[in-house]
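Workshop exercise sheet. Pairs work together: one partner reads the sequence aloud, the other fills in the structure field after running the prediction. Swap roles for the next sheet.
Pair: D.N. / O.F.
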Amino acid sequence: MQPGGGSLVSDKIEKRIELKAPVARVWQALTDSHQFGEWFRVALTEPFLVGTTVRGHILHPGYEHVVWEAHIEQMIEEELFSFTWAQPKSLAKEHYKPDYTGEPRTLVEFRLRATETGTLLTVTESGFDKLPDDRREQNFKNNDGGWAQQMTNIEVYLGEYA
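Structure field:
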């Protein structure tokens, strides 16, 4: 917190990466739930369809007890893929509750744009201002670091095009 009680946390996280893969390939890696699960490290068995909620277990070591849940908001082919997901109070095993009913949600948007050498992928997560004060800063910090890692993960996953 800043002196005077203001938060240092913004309402949104934005990450960009230029991938050496065509837009169609990046779109597939984002919107095919099995491929998404491979690079995002989550076990998904249901397809991504607008208006549905998809769940799976996180595969990242230490977080296997966490249920990943996203409500698919938009899929504009090769342009925008978005979902909302819950921001639970804690992911620590001893405090974690897999029921996200009533939990505040943030919006995640993946935007794609063709470049001369591949695809510019921009990921934005917004809505942190909806989180209770006692978790806003920690969730923002955790997600900011998580998105930095996920940008590396998708780049490695699509590395065959480099």
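Discussion prompt: Strands lie at 12-19, 42-44, 53-58, 67-76, 80-86, 105-115, 118-126. What would you look at next?
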